[in-house]
Amino acid sequence: MTVEARTARLTILIDPRKKALFERLCAEEDATSSQVVRRLIRRYIEERTGRPWVPREDVRSAPRGGGRRASAASGSRLTSRGRS
């Protein structure tokens, strides 16, 4: 797998106990929390678009299936109040 450019930051708020458990589980598999989050995001994108993730693909060309749509433009800060 190719190394992707990592120039965007995603900030989330999460329950401190959930964060501590997540970090412990990541450490048990010798992975950083960032590596695991990137893997989860990649899997989510593939499930939603129905095709493998292509790092250089323009996100605006991805098909929009049924269900919930993303409410923020690419590159903007995504927030979700009240969920962690």
Compile the SSE list and pairings.
Layout: H1 16-28, H2 33-49
In words, what does this structure look like?
The protein is mostly helical. The protein has a domain at 16-49. It contains two helices and no strands. The chain has helices spanning 16-28, 33-49. The longest helix has 17 residues, at 33-49. The chain starts with 15 loop residues before the first helix and ends in a 35-residue tail after the last helix.
Oligomer: single chain
Q: What sequence of helices (H) and strands (E) makes up the elements?
A: HH
Helix content: 25-40%
Distance between termini?
Answer: 30 Å
Average residue pLDDT: 77
Strand content: under 5%
Report the sheet with the most strands, covering strand number, pairing sense and barrel closure: none
C-alpha geometry:
globular
Number of helices: 2
Q: Rg, please? A: 14 Å
Structural class: mainly alpha
How many runs of DSSP E, i.e. beta strands?
0
Low-confidence stretches: 66-84
Explain briefly what this protein structure is.
The chain has 84 residues and is mainly alpha-helical.
Features:
single chain, 84 residues, mainly alpha, 2 helices, disordered C terminus
